[in-house]
Design goal:
Length: 277
């Protein structure tokens, strides 16, 4: 019997399970990631920039070694989990909605000899099947935006963390002073009524019991990243069309332009939060 999810989570699950989406992300992001990157130049390789973002997030972990237990909320192909496991020898649990992504992630774990360090669970980050105070670190890269009940996701992070544990995550957001009307095309594309914002996350995490340690705003990288995705899509479109429907590709390009515009007009931002339990 399949699990039941809220409507917003089910929409995200169906999207990422689709053959078009799965194939597109795998071909364009470099096969490991689905999150934003940190760029040294506006034409830098997407994979390299995505790896840099994982390392930047890990730099906020107070301690990480072979005894560290981490959970990744919405880990996609589990590329970040593999990167961390390889580098630090830590154990990472990935909870991710898409069974299609998870199947690929488990196969890649096995191929890279990392199955003993990484567990991938089919499920949602707003209802995690683990006991209280199980993990040293909860982290997430650009996945919490998909929930319309972000408070529940934050409360799950707090519940799962051991005392003094770290909650570190990045997310594309609307700016604190954004007029939500201008972001309607983005809301409609990802089936949400709004995005989080820096002030929203700070307030909700405080209400959950977290102590704010830092917020690193990396706003300029949002428009750069989606511009790079658009450029790669146009560059590889003929090859993509062998595996991905033309309708999906055109809709993706339209959506990417909305994200780029939102970033360039300072209605969207991106950054890394660090909270402590």
């Amino acid at each position: 019997m399949s699990k039941k999810y809220s409507n917003d989570i089910e929409v995200a699950r169906n999207y990422y399970n689709s053959s078009d989406a799965h194939t597109f992300y795998y071909m364009i992001w470099g096969g490991e990631d689905l999150h934003l990157g940190i760029y040294n130049s506006e034409d830098e390789d997407i994979y390299r920039a995505s790896r840099r973002a994982v390392d930047r997030i890990a730099s906020y972990f107070e301690k990480i070694d072979q005894n560290t237990k981490i959970i990744d909320f919405g880990g996609g192909f589990a590329g970040s989990a593999r990167h961390l496991a390889k580098k630090y020898g830590c154990h990472v649990t990935v909870i991710n909605l898409s069974e299609t992504e998870n199947k690929r992630g488990r196969k890649m774990n096995e191929e890279q000899g990392l199955s003993h360090l990484i567990d991938i669970i089919d499920g949602s980050y707003d209802d995690v099947p683990f006991e209280d105070e199980t993990f040293d670190i909860v982290f997430s890269e650009d996945a919490i935006l998909h929930s319309n009940n972000k408070e529940k996701v934050i409360s799950e992070a707090y519940r799962l963390l051991k005392p003094n544990g770290d909650f570190v995550f990045s997310d594309p957001m609307q700016t604190d002073n954004c007029d939500e009307k201008v972001l309607k095309p983005i809301y409609e594309r990802i089936n949400l009524s709004s995005l989080g914002s820096p002030a929203f996350y700070k307030e909700k995490c405080k209400q959950a019991g977290f102590k704010e340690i830092n917020f690193e705003e990396l706003d300029k990288h949002l428009a750069i990243h989606y511009s790079r995705i658009l450029a790669e899509t146009e560059k590889k479109q003929k090859e993509l069309e062998k595996y991905v429907s033309k309708e999906y590709i055109e809709n993706m390009k339209k959506g990417l332009r909305h994200w780029i515009k939102g970033g360039e007009e300072n209605n969207l931002t991106w950054g890394i939060f660090h909270f402590k339990k």
